[in-house]
Amino acid sequence: MDERTALHVEELSRALGNEYKEEIRAELEKLLSFKVPLEEAKRTVINKFMLRSPSAIHVRDLVAGMSGFEIIGRIINIEEKKVVVKDEHRTIFSGSFGDTTGICSFTCWDDMSLKAGNIVRIKNAYVRMWNNRTELYFGKRSVVEKLPDDYMEEIDMSSLSGPKKLRDVSSVDVLASSFVVIIEMYHRDVSLKGRVQTIIEGVLADETGKLPFTSWIPLKGIDIGSFIRFENAAVRVFRGVPSINFNEGTTIELVEQPYDVPFTLETASKVPEPLSVARVLENNGLFDIIVIGDILSVRPGSGMIERCPVCNRVTQKSNCRAHGQVDCVTDMRMKLILDDGTGSVHVMLNSGLSEAIYGKSMYEAEKMVLDSISRDVVFEDMRHKLTGKYIAVRGNSSRNEFGATLVAKSAWYPDYDLKQKVGSLIEGIDEKVINDG
Q1: Alpha-carbon distance 176 to 158, whole Å?
Q2: Are residues 91 and 221 in the same domain?
Q3: Are residues 285 and 245 part of one domain?
Q4: Beta partners for 57?
Q5: Both 281 and 418 in a single domain?
Q6: Do 90 and 33 share a domain, yes or no?
Q7: Longest pairwise C-alpha distance within the chain
Q8: Residue 351 bridge partners (DSSP)
Q9: H or E segment to which residue 132 belongs
Q10: Is 429 contained in some domain?
Q11: Does any domain span residue 210?
């Protein structure tokens, strides 16, 4: 590592904790080896290590990528499993772990003699995503201390599924109850065990946010604009975003709009206020958000690509990972790093949105490729034209240990006052200097 980079490692270590110095060094070197710009690499390291906390946290606070933290809870159930890891047969222990804020699955890589009902304090645990949910991991490098049976109260499943605002429904919830208004609703036929079933999908909202829903049961008398109170709906997670699932165990009540309700169909349906990237990075996934920032870079993989006509995967030299050699379909996309001063987020734009932001159609892009006999010409042109542009994107975000990604459903160039934007940035810098004091 050169002297200049070593200085940045020292700076990051002082800010994030010297106990992480070697890990910070390795992470920064890895990012720089992949040609990530230095400032972007530093922000990525900060975002990753800021998640670490030496103090105890709760289940509802678990986010993919967290490590080195302490958590206290009860082993709800546990079972022994035989697995093969790198051709080695191993025995692991998995089950459910919970506290008064939620329940999550866990995997323990060593025999710690744990039993259902044990209350434990786990130090140096970490979190990964598994089956779209956050999962708690611990093993040899962790310290597991058994606590007295009366250390914490029994976990009341009914209280965990009790009424919540949609903003508070998270990827650790199994069941949820709430009072909401339906702002989108449509029917769809799906094939289930050889038969076709009609399900209902849409979007629920309250004054705090929105979430998608799926109903596997009829919703008689319920339509867009209906206010409903539901209990014991199942919470499913897709790409970090919770969704509400109505099934036979769900109770749904159609309610006349109360006069004192803090939201209406109109207010709940309104366009969301923009979020800072820092807020996005704090969550495993968010539904229907807007982020505004500058394009820090246009990433490799942008431009003209080819997809498999069967599964839509991106192909390499007309070869699909799932279907082998195929007659590819030409497509265009953009992979951006968007920065707003509080952090950076990956943004994915499909062909339609790419055309809108890039300012050139698929036809024009294909003509560029034919004229230059190189697909890279579109990517290089995108980098030249778009780096530094100020854009807004709206869509859903997801997060893993490699960072946050926002898959855009719409994108545009927002109107803004340059003087006001510069003033806001200077004000933010001044506040940071004062706080760092």
Answers
A1: 9
A2: no
A3: no
A4: 71
A5: yes
A6: no
A7: 75
A8: none
A9: none
A10: no
A11: yes
CA proximity to 51, closest of 313, 278, 330: 278
For residue 389, give the DSSP letter: -
What token pair was written down for 379? 């990517």
Task: Determine which helix (DSSP H) or strand (DSSP E) holds 396, and give its type and residue range.
Answer: strand 390-400
- Its pTM stands at 0.69
- Measured distance CA(115)–CA(119) in Å, rounded: 9
Which DSSP helix (H) or strand (E) runs through 352?
helix 351-358
Per-residue pLDDT tens over the stretch 37-96: 787 787 777 766 655 544 568 888 887 778 888 899 999 889 988 888 777 888 899 988
The amino acid present at 4, given as its one-letter code, is: R
Do 85 and 31 lie in one domain? The reply is no
Residue 431 in domain: no
Q: Domain range holding 128?
A: 56-147
> Which amino acid, residue 324?
G
Q: Are 338 and 295 in contact (CB under 8 A)?
A: yes
3-state helix, strand and coil shares in percent for the chain, rounded to the nearest 5: 25, 45, 30
With a cut of 50, list the residues of the chain below it in pLDDT.
Answer: 53-54
Q: Which amino acid is at 369?
A: V
Query: Rounded to the nearest 10 degrees, how much is the dihedral formed by the CA atoms of 302, 307, 311, 317?
Result: -110
CA distance linking residue 40 with residue 372, whole number of Å: 32
In a domain, 236, yes or no: yes
Same domain? 356 vs 407: yes
Same-domain status, 263 and 285: no
Name the average pLDDT for the chain.
85
